[in-house]
């Protein structure tokens, strides 16, 4: 290293004395003399002596040595990460800038009726496990207050957006980010597969690039040694063009911290984040993901918006739908050994927790259940599998063909002439009889489920998950919680005989087959518990009136319920509304949107707490 430094010094200062060289390099004069002798022996320098003055000339061989050393230094970069791959749960969307053609942030423009660019981006992030999203606002920031955003989305403002570049916007999240993240520009319309592949890329610092588009308005990229080497919007700055940045990058927290440190000494307020990323990449490697056939566009003006609506988005949707169907076919092929070409008539249908598909294989109609994002946090799939087998054995659940306890993929036979019960159907006397017959088959079964439904552990888990997600509880939640736990203390003093219980016996999970057969599906929450829980579920989800509930309970008990049984049903209504209120807050914190569902349940929770209070002591809990 000292040889390199001394040679470089002589290149710029050929007449520098040995004393000055020693002072500059902080070494002894004797060490300087020794290195100079080495440089002469290596033919890296020549010396011209005139009287007592020396002039050093760096030879061509010496220049080549310097160039080789510099190239070696450039290839030697810091390694920030002991682990390469890491699950990314955070995202930052840069939405502070304005566009001349638009009177609102571009991400709030509709790409199809009732679907904004931001709606689509948030849905993609949710589908890929992103739990916390920060939107950096600036231009027309109040426009974001006028729309409903999921609970996991937080706003951060760049108050100087008019006088700063995108790096200033990115720097605004420095105080709220504490982990790796996905960085997106708000004007980018892109295939979901690009996000999936970038998140799966082994490099924790990685930019997404695509083929050169020819628009002359993008950040061109040059790759060297399989990593980012140059970024420039000036095509003349690059030796070669390996692609263009597509407005999406994945950055580690360590790399981002280096960007922020470098930016603290920045004197150019209009600096864009791409160039700060390039600066830091000179000492820390940045990988890249290139997708050549990517369907995408950015939207900077009216012409590009029109093109996005009329050409890009329709093409993108068709491609994504085709890819989704192909993935589903491959799942089925892997599970059942059925060739993909034999799977047809694929149709998606509803579900609050999961995504379900009806498919046809040969002459058989099957239902394929794909687990929803985040369900692994609160559903034990092995327990679900065991209970599905048990319910099919009892005869109240359709035949299960395949179940993967690791992925949650489930395939069952389609119920013939299937008709899902509606709220109005459950109020009919013959349907009440069919529902209670199914519940009695389950509750009176000699079969035993391997697991208990751990209600109170689940309550604590949901509350902990909400706190961990940084979501806000509803106003008045703490007071309601205190009352619920007083009810809990009373309930735990009762003697309850546990039996197989469905736990989620809402009317949508009862499927009628013809006039005389009824099935009960979706056993994700099932376990050994108080059977009256299922009665409470069905009653509140069917929105029975007091008279309708009396008739329903008479069908179940074959008599009028006792006061103790009525009290237990009311207690379970309280527990359910408390539990599913928290479930909704948690799910919405992760990006789902259930409208007023959670708040409606919370309102009913408070009403039932008052009803319980009247029945017990006449004093507010």
TrEMBL record:
**Per the record, a Pfam family?**
NTP_transf_3
Q: Which residues form the MobA-like NTP transferase domain?
A: 91-219
Q: Which domain of life is it from?
A: Bacteria
User: Where is coiled-coil annotated?
Assistant: none
Q: Which Gene3D superfamilies does this chain map to?
A: 3.90.1200.10, Phosphorylase Kinase, domain 1, Spore Coat Polysaccharide Biosynthesis Protein SpsA, Chain A, Winged helix-like DNA-binding domain superfamily/Winged helix DNA-binding domain
Its recorded name reads Winged helix-turn-helix transcriptional regulator
Source organism of this protein record: Sporosarcina saromensis
